[in-house]
Amino acid sequence: MNDDFVTAGVNLQFSYAAGAAASRFLCALRDEQKIFGARCPECRRVLAPARSFCPRCFVETNEWLEVGPGGTLGAFVAPPFAQLLEPTLTLALIQLDGADTALVHRLGEFDAPMLRRGLRVVPVFAASRRGHILDLAYFKPVELDNAHSI
Amino acid sequence: MRHAAIIGTGQTKHTKAHDDMNQAELVRQAATRALSDAGITFREVDAVVLANMELFEGRALPEMWVGAGAGGYLKPAIKIATGGTSGTSAAIAGYHQCASGLFDIVLVVGWEKHSEGATQTGMAMVDPLWDRNVASGAVGNFALSISQYVAERGVTPAQAAQVAVKARRNAAKNPYAHLQMPDLTVEQVLRSPMLADPVHRLDMCPQSDGACALVYAAQGIAEKLCARPAWVRAAVTRHDQPYIGDLDRRLVTMRTLRDAARAAYHQVGIVEPRKQIDVAEIYEPVSYAELAWYEALGFCAEGKAGELIDEGVTEMNGELPVNPSGGVLSSNPVGASGVLRVAEAAMQVMGRAGAHQIADARVALATGYGVYAWSDVMILGADT
Amino acid sequence: MTELLKISHTMHLEWRYGVGASFHEFIAALRARAQLLGRRCPSCQRVYLPPRPVCGNCYVELRDWVEVRDTGTVRAFTIVHTPIIDPTTGARRPSPYTMALIQLDGADTTLNHYLEASDPTKLRIGMRVRAVWRAPRTGLLGDISHFTELTDE
């Protein structure tokens, strides 16, 4: 070190409680490979990932329902900063079928030129799952002219 | 400026680990209870003030994460982060917002999830240019100051232990408190493991998960919503220099608390605190600190704190009950601990303290403390 | 009853702090000559360690350097049995160990540092102590390993 700067590092460990609602959502990813949303009884929106209360109405959600698994690509970005850590990382906002909120997640198995708003995507679950948002490994585009309805 | 009062409070059970709720849900539980106690919905709230610190919870912008839990959607919301005084600073900020005339109803929520991580490590991140390599942590720092206090004021370990006993026995009457020990004795405190001489484990506050909220309403509105509002009579803050070594015998002099109390008493016309204050909720992270605060707050003369506890003056049935809720010694969700002092003082004035209610409490004192010597003092009253 | 999950994260954070003019001098003197430097307030005459740009009491700019000796008097001490997690390593500091507030000769503030005595029963407020230095020096407080009793004055 010199006389002008002092470097100081710190190691911090955290272990966050997901809470009952998020735990239920994550267990469904792990055990059933299903994505759940929750409906607000007042505004009727389906919030996905499912959560225990609606932030706009400030009331508890009361109905759990499966959303997706497919959805529509909204926005997407290859964030330059994140790519320092993970060269192929591309993040997306995905509107899952049946959900009123968008999910932020990763894209995989794609060629950049095919990405556009409105593209249909489906989830790929991780082979080894542990009750974590990355039990959903990524979403991949599906070709609509394969005549499979998603 | 106009008068403002607390018209409702709410808190979660304070406990070692709230694994059943994430941080936003914890905040929401305290907030909804406070709104219910105030008789309003979240729509009537004009502004939200949150108390917590990034380092405590390891998450940038915790106010954004939990803001929805405080009903902050489409509202002005800010976070106050001043270490241990976060809660009282937030309570004072909420009061300022309401009394200013800009917001009629203000919600204040403080919270903490010690169980989730690195609060203690965060607190040990003192000045990297100076003393981070020799940081003693909260207990060590207190023990240093206590060694000076004991040398000068002569309080005994048994007197300090009695403070700890009072706290946990009082907590047994508070359904939300973390450490409820109705049968705790001085001997048990003195036999508990030594953390840093002379502080035993049971002399020290716990690490709790919990949240606490309170609702302010402006004069003209408070009276319509609440039969016995707790009016803010004074709110004073004092800070001191940044290093523990700057402070002259910290607990002996505690000039920030002394000066804040002097200013607050002057504003309210209190010249004999022991007679004119009906109940006090003071922020005491360690038993010895409560003794030092008795002197700094003028509850007794210098050197007489030991006598005060010996004579039972500050017990629930004494002349000036201190911490009928059990205090920080019984429940310490740090971001909420300061809010709890103000909320508990308000509950006394409002007549809503249940089994730990002090009869005819019309003037209540609440204090906040933060490393190393930051002090907040609030006085709440049944009259404006 | 849902299984309640916990999500873990480990963060390693690093900062590079500019030391500023006050510490620049302090670091240089400490590293080159094992000399501690304080700053005196021209108004209240208080000598501050660490050096800093302003006197907190007077709000007057500090410019005068004062040599502070590496001997001093213990003003407070404690034996720590339950250590904290060292924030830089993430490991627990071994215990028990003794901490003290030491007023170095020439300074008005006290210094928070480690204390070791050959005979722990001799630890008392008012005892005279001296610094034990590490080599090589970096210019920061860690250059002093601990303080120990001063035997010849």
Beta-strand segment tally of chain C: 9
Q: Tell me which oligomeric state these chains represent.
A: heterotrimer
Low-confidence runs of at least 5 consecutive residues of chain C: none
Largest interface, Cβ cutoff 8 Å = B-C, 46 and 41 residues
With helices defined by DSSP (H or I, 4 residues minimum), what is the helix count of chain A?
1
Tell me the overall shape of chain A. globular
Query: What structural class do helix, strand and pairing data of chain C support?
Result: mainly beta
**Measured on Cα atoms, how large is the radius of gyration of chain A?**
19 Å
Number of helices of chain C: 1
Percent of residues in helices of chain A: under 10%
Low-confidence stretches of chain A: 146-150
Number of strands of chain A: 9
Overall tally of domains of chain C: 1
If you average the pLDDT of chain A, what whole number results?
91
What's the helix-strand series of chain C? Answer: EHEEEEEEEE
| Major sheet characteristics of chain C | 5 strands, mixed, barrel
Estimated share of beta-strand residues of chain C: 35-45%
Structural summary, described in words:
- The complex is a heterotrimer of chains A (150), B (384) and C (153).
- Chain A has one domain (19-145).
- Chain A has one helix and nine strands; from the N terminus they run βαββββββββ.
- Chain A has one helix at residues 19-32, and strands spanning 5-17, 35-39, 46-47, 63-67, 71-77, 91-96, 103-106, 120-125, 136-141.
- A five-stranded antiparallel sheet of chain A has the order 7-6-5-8-9, with no helix packed on it. Chain A has a three-stranded antiparallel sheet with strand order 3-2-4, covered by helices on one side.
- In chain A, strand 6 and strand 7 (103-106) form a beta hairpin.
- Mean pLDDT of chain A is 91; it is low at 146-150.
- Chain B contains 16 helices and eleven strands.
- In chain B, helix 4 (86-99) packs across helix 16 and helix 7 packs across helix 13 (287-296).
- The radius of gyration of chain B is 19 Å and the shape is globular.
- Chain C is mostly beta strands and 153 residues long.
- Chain C has one domain (20-149).
- Chain C has one helix and nine strands, in the order E-H-E-E-E-E-E-E-E-E.
- In chain C, the strands form two sheets. Chain C has a five-stranded mixed beta barrel with strand order 5-6-7-9-8. In chain C, strands 3-2-4 form a three-stranded antiparallel sheet.
- Chain C starts with 5 loop residues before the first strand and ends with a strand.
- Strand 1 (5-17) of chain A pairs antiparallel with strand 1 (6-18) of chain C, so a sheet runs across the interface.
